[in-house]
Structure of TetR family transcriptional regulator:
Amino acid sequence: MSSEATGPKPPAAIDRMSGELRKADLQDAATQLFSERGYDGSSLQEIADRIGILKGSVYYYYQSKEDLLFDIVKAIHDEHLENVRMLAARAGDPMQRLHAVLVGHAIFVCENLVKTTVFLRELERLPAERQAEILRPDHAYQRVFRDLITEARDAGLVAAEVSPKLASLWILGSLNWLHRWYRPHVTSGPEQVAEQFADQLTRGIKPSVLWERQARSS
Amino acid sequence: MSSEATGPKPPAAIDRMSGELRKADLQDAATQLFSERGYDGSSLQEIADRIGILKGSVYYYYQSKEDLLFDIVKAIHDEHLENVRMLAARAGDPMQRLHAVLVGHAIFVCENLVKTTVFLRELERLPAERQAEILRPDHAYQRVFRDLITEARDAGLVAAEVSPKLASLWILGSLNWLHRWYRPHVTSGPEQVAEQFADQLTRGIKPSVLWERQARSS
């Protein structure tokens, strides 16, 4: 036990408050390391080293690296989901709400690059059933986009030939890909990128009759 | 040496023809394994096992797993680049050529899911300078899309407010993301997905005056 005297306290000595704190530290350190080296390239030992605890203390919170990844990926997914659901529930016609969701999701990705990278890249490292547990029945996340597009199409605001399913995957691709190239201080600001992308995405699915009307009134 | 008597020939005995063949087998097996387990989760031993050669024989071709990944990723990148350059060089106005490139790239991704997955996912596992060596000066691949958009914008076929750089990243995101969700026999055929995506992407950057003209003539 002498080696622990000057190091971190053994798990049994951690009270609830500092325990919660340390679990959050553990998740933050792991998220950062996974984003830098990938899940496969990171070990529990390295994660423990980053926050100055013993590897054994990690097992107080998680039985395995996979359990840690699951918790991290689920929390990031749920944050993203809450954000788009909140935006989709605002006032406006379905196309205005879709535009707001697109802007808000793009900004969220740009401002949370590390977390988004870990979610999008490392989700695949979980077994299929644990991935499904996070994405929930019927892809709740994708469903927010799909439902708005369906609603907008029913209202004549989206071209009849657009498939809401394919269009939602098309939208998510262009916005999710932001994490691969967007860099603060190099690229234009998040708002500028988000507005341009949201404009292009909504233009891309509008029926031409709406364009005609808008062009006439401008 | 007795263990090799019934196994593969030692490297020195491989003649040029079968050597080339085996190198291609090695790359194919590695590509498949990387797509299934990720680069970090695959070992040279497992790659050698898949094609029934000794791990030592791998070193006849490659000094390291990284060198093997470099060759694979570079070859896939160059195939993609050749495809879009060939499509971009066809006849037509810049918007028609852009549409053809978008359709052709989307189909290429759908029909080469394993390769595209390894390229897009594992490129990041190479050191920065080797990534740059593949992407070449000024991102030759992205440049094909960017140049067509610039040309189309100069001809008044793309809205003046569209940034060719951001638009090319927007386009590549939605098309590259196909490798994450497109599955043959589950999703609509590659041509259907490719046409819908190309239509939406080109609509998304057109100036509204063009829409007006098209709506009137239809």
